[in-house]
Amino acid sequence: MQNPFIVSLLVANHSGVLTRVSSLFSRRAFNIDSLTVGETDDPTLSRMTIVSWGDDYMKDQIVKQLQKLQDVRIVQLMDSDQIVVRELMIIKVRLTKGQLPEVMEAVNAYRANVVDLSPESMAIEITGETVKLNAFLDYMRQYSIIEMTRTGPTAIGRSTYCLEND
């Protein structure tokens, strides 16, 4: 049975690591739905969050293959019941006369923030779970979307659940 899953990695923070990780997925025909990466509190390490789809065999293979990479320090298949998952989306919509109050009502209802405003357009940032972002995007489709960008999900363990003490 194919299900989405999240893999978190701590990797060496230097050039070429992202290429080696993404090349592994490509060579093994594993799909990456999204990949986020950023430096940790230790500047020698970066944390990657990869969202993919697959059955239990594929999940195990991805973890085993990633553990073989020299630059990968920790690999963990995240337990969806023990993590907080968030995504960032920034969307710019065209404003026509009289639409500002309607759009602001949606921004407030979804607890989004206006990050840029001009007489012709508004840029809105929203964070949350993917379902919330998709609902906001569906609502905003009635307006003219000029452009949009999304980070893809990133995750961290709740309470004592974390990469170091699996």
List keywords for this structure.
166 residues; five-stranded antiparallel beta sheet
A few lines on this structure:
This protein has four helices and nine strands; from the N terminus they run βαββαββαββαββ.
Largest sheet: 5 strands, antiparallel
Structural class call reads alpha+beta
Percent of sequence in beta strands: 35-45%
CA distance, first residue to last residue: 25 Å
Could you give the order of the helices and strands?
EHEEHEEHEEHEE
Count of runs of 4 or more consecutive helical residues: 4
Proportion in helices: 25-40%
The 3D shape can be described as elongated
Mean pLDDT: 94
Overall number of strands: 9
Which regions have little confidence, pLDDT < 50, spanning 5+ residues? none
Describe the structure.
This protein is α+β, with helices and mostly antiparallel strands and 166 residues long. The protein has 4 helices and 9 strands, in the order E-H-E-E-H-E-E-H-E-E-H-E-E. Strands 5, 6, 7, 8 and 9 form a 5-stranded antiparallel beta sheet that branches. The chain has a 4-stranded antiparallel beta sheet with strand order 2-3-1-4, with helices on one face. A hairpin with a 5-residue loop joins strand 2 (34-39) and strand 3 (45-54). The two termini are 25 Å apart. 19% of the residues are buried. The mean pLDDT is 94.
